[in-house]
Specification:
There is one protein chain. The chain is mainly beta and 300 residues long. Helices cover 13% and strands 39% of the residues. It has helices at 13-29, 213-224, 253-256, 286-291; strands at residues 43-50, 55-62, 78-83, 89-91, 96-98, 104-111, 119-125, 131-137, 144-146, 150-152, 155-162, 171-178, 188-194, 201-203, 206-212, 230-240, 265-266, 268-282. Strands 5-6-2-1-18-16-12-13 form an eight-stranded mixed sheet, with helices on both faces. It is elongated, with a radius of gyration of 23 Å. The termini are far apart. Mean pLDDT is 82; it is low at 1-36.
Length: 300
């Protein structure tokens, strides 16, 4: 069975890089002389659980002692997750995926909503009882404090501080919401994704991000045109779990492809992580809205 596209299996991008490395490593492990195959290592697991998804996807790679020339249609594996908080178990289904390089791989999937602060155990069990497993605790959302807009060298900006966040986010997005015309239509929204140079900085009281209101204004206008009746602005941080941070805080591919260096899998290799979206939204004062060249609601 092949899941419907699109499939978000290995994004974030860091996980994608590790999966590519895992594919190379798994291929090497098929050789009978590979020294990394151990009696107590059964599977490589790569993927993550996402609070924003209603279906989860994780790749499972069997570790073999013999060279396999053909990919089997069915994998000898039963995959299930169990939530520590309520004991609820969900069995996952297998699918055979054709990747861009022409190779095939097993990606297990399940309709599953995961909750912030909960811990999930992911188990892959062969028919002979051999089991590989990993656990991940989904990040718990933190509170955000929104400062007043300030005019400075970078134009009109606004600082958002995220309490208790002590590591860089994976992704920073700011959205701007506008009224639609006619009013019976849904509102319009533009999402601006910040590059790493705008991810923010760590302070003693949390992680801070500067929303570049004036700079974003030009991007918004290019994408949806004029006129724009402003309704609100918001920010979303995509945060990984605490264990999804490499040795020394640096994602060095040469280091991370080494077996066992960056892994949380029992009786196997790879990594299972989780992500959560921290969100906050707010409005702006009428003078600020008009200074940005937007229309204030009711004054169009």
């Amino acid at each position: 069975m092949k899941p419907l596209a699109p499939i978000r299996i290995f994004s974030p991008a860091v996980m994608l890089g590790l999966v590519v490395a895992a594919g190379l490593f798994a291929s090497a492990c098929d050789d009978t002389v590979d020294p990394f195959i151990e009696e107590d290592r059964f599977f490589t697991i790569f993927g993550f659980l996402d609070t924003a998804a209603d279906t989860q996807f994780v790749r499972v790679i069997p570790l073999r002692r013999r060279l396999v020339t053909e990919q089997e249609d069915a994998l000898d594996a039963r995959v299930a997750t169990t939530a520590r908080e309520d004991g609820n178990a969900v069995v996952w289904r297998d699918s055979l995926i054709h990747f861009d390089d022409g190779s095939l791989g097993h990606v297990f999937y399940a309709p599953l909503h995961v909750f912030p602060g909960w811990t999930y155990r992911f188990e892959v069990r062969r028919s002979d009882g051999a089991t590989a497993a990993a656990e991940t605790t989904v990040p718990r959302a933190e509170h955000a404090f929104v400062g007043e807009p300030v005019e400075g060298p970078a134009g009109l900006t606004q600082t958002v501080r995220w309490e208790n966040v002590d590591a860089p986010p994976f992704r920073v997005e700011v959205w701007y919401r506008f009224a639609a015309f006619p009013p019976s239509e849904p509102f319009r929204e533009v999402v601006v994704t910040y590059g790493e140079d705008r991810f923010g900085r760590l302070r003693e009281d949390g992680w801070t991000v500067d929303v570049q209101l004036r700079k974003d204004r030009a991007d918004v206008a290019r994408r949806i045109g004029e006129p724009l009746v402003f309704l609100g602005v918001g920010m979303r941080l995509t945060m990984t779990d605490e264990r999804w941070r490499p040795p020394g805080g640096v994602f060095d591919p040469e280091l991370l492809i080494q077996p066992g260096v960056f892994s949380n899998v029992e009786n196997g290799f790879g990594f299972l992580g989780s992500v959560n979206q921290y969100t906050t939204e707010w409005t702006l004062s009428e003078p600020t809205i008009e200074a940005l060249g937007y229309a204030f609601p009711g004054k169009r």
